[in-house]
Amino acid sequence: MNQAKRKKWEQHVADYERSGQSQNAWCRDNNIKVNRLRYWIKKFENEKVAVKRNIDTPTNWVKVDTSLSNQGAHNNSLVIIIGEASIKVTSDFDADFLKRVIGTLTSVC
């Protein structure tokens, strides 16, 4: 997105919010289409929500023990550890089943 355009609309939205006017009145006084103002207000609100979600959602790292993969040359498996539980996943695993198991373990561990 063009930074100059974004800055201009950030300023328009800030001016509108400080004005105390209705959207229709402010747009009429500033020769701006009300639908454009509403678009940018919504866009900026959605961006704030997305940023807040990222801040409020902690990143959970899981430990992967790579030493287990060196035990056999043909052993295509992975051990997933969630809390006190560990799951050994082989190359022929059922993805839907694993997803349900991980969901359950995550909620209780």
Explain the overall architecture.
By secondary structure, the chain is mainly alpha-helical. It has helices spanning 3-19, 23-30, 34-56, 95-108, and strands at residues 77-82, 85-90. Strand 1 and strand 2 form a beta hairpin.
Task: Please summarize what this structure is.
By secondary structure, the chain is mainly α. The protein has helices at 3-19, 23-30, 34-56, 95-108, and strands at 77-82, 85-90.
Kindly, what is the distance between the CA atoms of the first and last residues, rounded to a whole number of angstroms?
A: 42 Å
Strand content: 5-15%
Order of helices and strands: HHHEEH
Backbone structural class: mainly alpha
Radius of gyration: 26 Å
Given the structure, what is the number of helices?
A: 4
Sheet with most strands:
2 strands, antiparallel
- Note poorly predicted spans: none
Q: What level of helicity do the residues show?
A: 55-70%
Overall form: rod-shaped
Tell me the number of strands: 2
Strand order of the largest sheet: 1-2
Question: Taking all residues together, what is the mean pLDDT?
Answer: 80
